[in-house]
Amino acid sequence: QVRLVESGGGLVQPGGSKRLSCAASGFRLDGYAIAWFRQAPGKEREGISCFSVSDGTEYYAESVKGRFTISRDNAKNEVYLQMNSLKPEDTAVYYCATDLRSYCLELDAPQMYWGQGIQVTVSS
């Protein structure tokens, strides 16, 4: 059974950093693209990053480019989202997801499997 579990969320001050983890079970991450999404209160879900294993390309939304970095540890079967220079507008529930493809579609493309989501709050 495919399962994704996010961890690492919480409260952080503006300008701070956080690293989210996404642990996979039921399948090996190293064969599939993994995406990160977020949904802020009152807003639509936004695709923010994706790692394509077919060619090793990383994709980022303009809202996070230069501040967020996606990475993976195949040995641990985990994917990470390093978030730096955080802003209050980054406050959202963050989700990892996969469509069990080796490549990324457009960032907002629907995914087949989702984690439960984790809250990140950026506030002083």
Describe the protein in words:
By secondary structure, the protein is an all-beta fold. Helix content is 0%, strand content 46%. The protein is built from no helices and eleven strands. The chain has strands at 3-7, 10-12, 18-25, 34-39, 46-51, 58-60, 68-73, 78-83, 92-98, 113-114, 118-122. The strands form two sheets. Strands 2, 4, 5, 6, 9, 10 and 11 form a seven-stranded mixed sheet that branches. Strands 1-3-8-7 form a four-stranded antiparallel sheet, with no helix packed on it. Strand 5 (46-51) and strand 6 form a beta hairpin. The protein is globular, with a radius of gyration of 13 Å.
Compute the gyration radius: what is it?
13 Å
Structural category is: mainly beta
Order of helices and strands: EEEEEEEEEEE
Average pLDDT, all residues = 95
Characterize the main sheet: 7 strands, mixed
Helical content, roughly? under 10%
> For the terminal residues, how far apart are their CA atoms?
40 Å
Query: Ranges with pLDDT <50 over ≥5 residues?
Result: none
What is the count of DSSP helices, taking H or I runs of 4+ residues? 0
Total count of strands: 11
* Global geometry: globular
Strand residues, percent? over 45%
Key words describing this protein structure:
four-stranded antiparallel sheet, seven-stranded mixed sheet, 124 residues, mainly beta, globular, 46% strand
Chain-wise SSE layout:
Elements: E1 3-7, E2 10-12, E3 18-25, E4 34-39, E5 46-51, E6 58-60, E7 68-73, E8 78-83, E9 92-98, E10 113-114, E11 118-122
Parallel strand pairs: 2-11
Antiparallel strand pairs: 1-3, 3-8, 4-5, 4-9, 5-6, 7-8, 9-10, 9-11
